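Example protein
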Amino acid sequence: MSTTVATSEPAAVHSRSWRDLWQVPLLAVAAVLLVSGMATLMLTKPNPDVAGMVARAEGLLAEGLPEESLAVLNTEARPLINDASVSAETRQRFHAARAAAISVGQARLGADVEANHLRILEELDKAERAGRTLLDREHAIAVAALVALDRLEEAAGRIGMVSDDASDERTRLSRVVIERAMQGGQVSEALASRLLTDLGDDPMLTLEDRVWTLARRTELRLRNEASEEAIARLLRMMPRVQQADDAMRGELFLLLGESYVAGGALPEAAKQLERATSLLPPGDDLYARSMLAEGRVFEQLGDLDRARLRFEAVVGTYTASPSFRPALLSLGETLALISEVYPASATADEAVEVYALLADELLDATRRPGPILAETMSSLIERFEEQMARRELDLAAQYAQIAEDLVAAAGADERVLLSQARVNRARALQLVADALDIEPPGEGSVLTPDELGVELTEIDPSTRAQAQRWYVRAGDYFRRHADMLAGSDDDLAYADSVWNAAVMFDGGGDTAEAIASYVEFAGTIAGDPRVPAARFRLGRAYQASGEYELAAAQFEALLDLANDPERGRGVGPWGVRSYVPLAQVYLEDPDPANDRRASELLQSVLRGEAGDVESESFSDALAAMGMVHYYDGLYPSAIEQLEEAVLREGDSRESHKLKYLLADAYRLESVAITQTLGGGAVAPSIQDELEATREDHLGRAIELFAQVRDGLEAVPERRRTVLDGISLRNAYFYLGDCAFDLGDYDAAIRYYQIARDRYSDDAASLVALVQIFNAYFEAGDHEQARTASEKARRFYERLPEDAWDDPTLPMSRADWERWLDSSYELASLRADAQAAGLGG
């Protein structure tokens, strides 16, 4: 069911009669009455009592309630203060009261907020613009705000507005501005001097203010290095202040003592400072300052014990005093000196501990470090230099580290970076020298182990690793030092640090960083005589990293420059030194096409084209050519060149490697002769000669292997390289092989037994056992051979299969075949004997 809403026609609009509008006149009358009533109400309502609000706020402030006073001013009076009904005098009082409340409230909270100081000055300015003549206390509020904002000239101008009736207040304000000015630079000190002059001219000054003024003027004279003037003035004025209390006179004696110190009159200074200490009350900052000054005088006079006592007294009692940190610094310096002069009284470690404590203090974020920071940095660098000169590297490193810690507060300091670089370099060199039992090089002379004539590989692994860490650490600091100097006027220092960074990274095995630094040095340091050396070292670094093409480019460039009369100045020696490494690069790279170039380079050196026969390059070329021929199987040529190389090398560490190669060349050539003789195609006349040569080669090999064995055994195990270990082990076994090949089976057995005992836990022991078996078998002692074979079999079965994967084992395929053949033959002989009824 739905509901339909009916719609109707619109009603006709009729005109309204007066009777219908009777309400309108009544509303009009009511409206008139209402407006009239409101007007009456507005005219009769009282004005807000803003003056009363301000008076109430002033009262609260007088009661010591600045926050409550501000609340009244801000929440009640401020919205109405600019109303036309508010009098100018009320507005003056409002702004003055607001400035006073902010000033008192901030002081009570111990706050020092710039916005508050600016607001105080703004409110006082509004009060003045409203017509107020500021009261003396309001001028004092303005001065305090201006001083806090370091607007000292304005503050001084305000002091002149204080009335003559408030001379004491004017003096107090002058002292406030002077004290702040004396904390600033020269401009502020000039203002302080002017105000002190004005203050000193005031005949109404109290005795206390005269003493204070004299003290501050003395401090200014001392800052301006006018110590004689300060002394003269104090001596003349002291009789006039005899009536001052002990504390005030004590400060003047303190200043007199400091003036004598500045003038170098130490005995007189000590006398005046002693008087100051006796007059000043213990616990006062000036007392601590006097003790500090006394200690410094005693230190300069050489009375280190008394100086130490004074510094320790300040450090132990006056931790909140401005003298605390300077006393710590002086104590550290004194302990460092005592530890050198009277080591029984103090140790260097005690001095380091004091410097470390001072560093912690200076890094305390809650306290400003002040000028003592720069003094401490300089003192630490001095201590560092002292310890470096004494070769006390651990102590030097500690001082350098403390200095670096302070960089966080003092900012970047190139002295610190250079100190760290130098001490880490020195520690690395010292470690290398100690490991090699040689005299450590002086700083700035020999830099790396290769210049000491040794390799880091000759050092035991743990020592080598530590030395490399220090080399790399030194390189990093030299690198950072160079970066800091980049773009400065000190081109020489920059070049030195880039060079040293490269050399240190090179010595530490960080080839990538070494290459980067050598590239920078060679490419950016124009005219430096070390550029050819940098290119040579760069080539060596590329060679070590397997970048043979880049290495060859450096060496070839040096050779080209060395042959250029115009561009080759200073390159000559490095060009000569490039022959052998360039040949090595060509031999080491995978391209056989340049091997001929390598041989030509070595032959050039051997022909004397790169120096005479006494040169280092000639010796290197001999050794290199000998090695080339050795690895190519050209043993007669290898023997010829290695014999001369060994003779030139003497008893150096390098000689062990060369002697081993030479001995092995003799051994392998004797094997080749044996194979030739066994071929049956040799004429009888030549056969005897070859046999004699074979025996001579084996005899010479035995002599050389024995020298290698004895020489490497004399080297401490921790200093032997991996190659040394292999050469030593194989020398033991090859002595037996050579005696065996000579047919001297008794000698062979002795050599093998010695080798077996020496390497009882090594897989190579099987070689000795097998060869002992073979020697007994060849000598016809089958019983001993059988015993030796059984020992060899048992040892062989105990070893894991992968033990034979070592390619350096002195047991060849022929040795395995010989063991198999001899074992089979021995077994056959035993079987035949048993068949014949002869038994075992």
In short: Residues 1-44, 831-840 have pLDDT under 50 and may be disordered.
